[in-house]
Amino acid sequence: MSHANFLEKLLDGVAVEWKRLGELGSLIRGNGLQKKDFTETGVPAIHYGQIYTYYGLSTTKTKSFVSPVLATQLRKVDKGDVVITNTSENIEDVGKALVYLGELQAVTGGHATVFKPSDCILGKYFAYFTQTDEFANVKRKHAKGTKVIDVSATDMAKIVVPIPCPENPKKSLEIQAEIVRILDAFTELTAELTAELTAELTARKKQYAYYRDQLLSFEEGEVEWKPLGDVTKKWYSGGTPTAGKPEYYEGGDIPWLRTQEVKFCDIESTEIKITQAALSNSAAKWIPKNCVIIAISGATAGRSAINKIPLTTNQHCGCLEIDSSKALYRYVFHWVSYNYENIKALGQGARGDLNSSIIKDFKLPLPYADDPEKSLAEQARIVAILDKFDALTNSISEGLPREIELRQKQYEYYRDMLFSFPKPQGVA
To answer: Which of 46, 326, 344, 346 has the highest count of CB atoms within 10 angstroms of its CB?
Structure first.
């Protein structure tokens, strides 16, 4: 059904009038209230963090409280009121709305404006309207400031809102309620899907952790413990081409890996590419594919990955080219990933840095070490199981944000359709 047909059916022939927000209720700018004022119990208090969390929704309780004495000095929020952010460093966060449905009167501070709706508009209808591009565009016109963006209560009162059938308040509220019902349904569906996928992901992670523990835990005598250096054909390190030199980065086609991209995964591409000139004038060097890469410096130290393409790295990556006659590179990868915390704990100095000696001295369990063919077969069996769980877990991990994004786009489509009322010429 097209936008026009859907709205025509919803409106059933009634007119729509765009009214200033100030005509639809009163707007009161908050006052006072700092982070240090919050208490664990007391009078409910709504602060900007909660408004961001519940953007476009409603809540029956607050996450923060203030003392009864302080509450007497602050602006009051009654059940059904809409609390709107009017101050932020980010323009996108200005104008976010939360409908308060708590039974106890709440308070809010100077970061917010309280909209007390009259009997011709539903608070949640307006809250959903604040998510539209229509509202965002007008909000930007009234925004003031550079470092801190602010939209005053006076300017907010000038923003126009579409009110269907204003001459018949009962009919108008019924139409508004239907719009809210539809958008609530999409919001709930998205929340349910997210919860289901998150639960599935958690279960798969637990299952993966269980089997990994079983497969990589060995009894005395079952394996022979060898230093990683014994199964390593070559150790590679990298370097960083001089920053700020366009000839080293612009138009480059050589993959260059940084430690922030080392995340217990296969590396298929890198965020940054360098040029041949950069390679020739730095310590960066080509590394063959299927090496086990371990971050050796700073906050990422101990994290591992496998490069599925030949690439170069910065100096904070250590790369093990595994001798395939002794060990499978994926077996080594699973082992060092499993021992991330143990390897990280070996770091030295204030930054907890690792080095080639520390990595190559770390022990690896080799099953049937005296029979290379049998050893590689057992390693392959372990790898096949762990890879399967890894792939399943990653599939859900990648699918979760993708599904949420699709649901969000679907929701935005219907939201925009439900608020695509014609605006008479001359209405700003």
So the answer is: 46
Q: What is the spatial distance between Cα 257 and Cα 315, in angstroms, rounded to a whole number? A: 10
Specify the pLDDT at position 54. Answer: 59
Tokens 């890894």 belong to 390
Percent of the chain with pLDDT strictly greater than 70 = 96
What is the Cα–Cα distance from 246 to 275, expressed in whole angstroms?
9
Closest CA to 229 of 292, 309, 284: 292
Distance CA 116, CA 25 (A): 5
pLDDT of residue 1: 47
At 351 the pLDDT is 86
Give 307: exposed, middle or buried? Use CB within 10 Å, 0-12, 13-18, 19+.
buried
DSSP, residue by residue, 266-290: EE---SEEE-HHHHHTSS---B-SS
Whole-number CA gyration radius for the chain: 30
Give just the sign of the alpha carbon dihedral 327, 333, 334, 340: positive
Instruction: Indicate the SS3 state at residue 65.
Output: strand
Mean pLDDT, all residues of the chain: 90
CA distance 100 to 82: 6
Residue 13 has pLDDT above 80, yes or no: no
Q: Which of 87-101, 110-124, 369-383 has the lowest mean pLDDT?
A: 87-101
- The structural domains of the chain, ordered by start, are 17-164 (3.90.220.20), 221-367 (3.90.220.20)
What is the Cα–Cα distance from 172 to 218, expressed in whole angstroms? Answer: 71
User: Which pTM does this prediction carry?
Assistant: 0.68
pLDDT of residue 237: 93
| Residue 201 DSSP SS3 | helix
Could you give the 3-state DSSP secondary structure of residue 114?
strand
DSSP class of 39: B
User: How far is Cα 217 from Cα 338, in angstroms, rounded to an integer?
Assistant: 10
Determine contact, residues 287/316, Cβ cutoff 8 Å. Answer: no
Task: For 47-90, write each residue's pLDDT tens digit.
Answer: 877 676 655 578 898 889 999 999 999 999 999 999 999 988 88
Strands 16-20 and 75-77: unpaired
Instruction: Identify the three-state secondary structure at position 426.
Output: coil
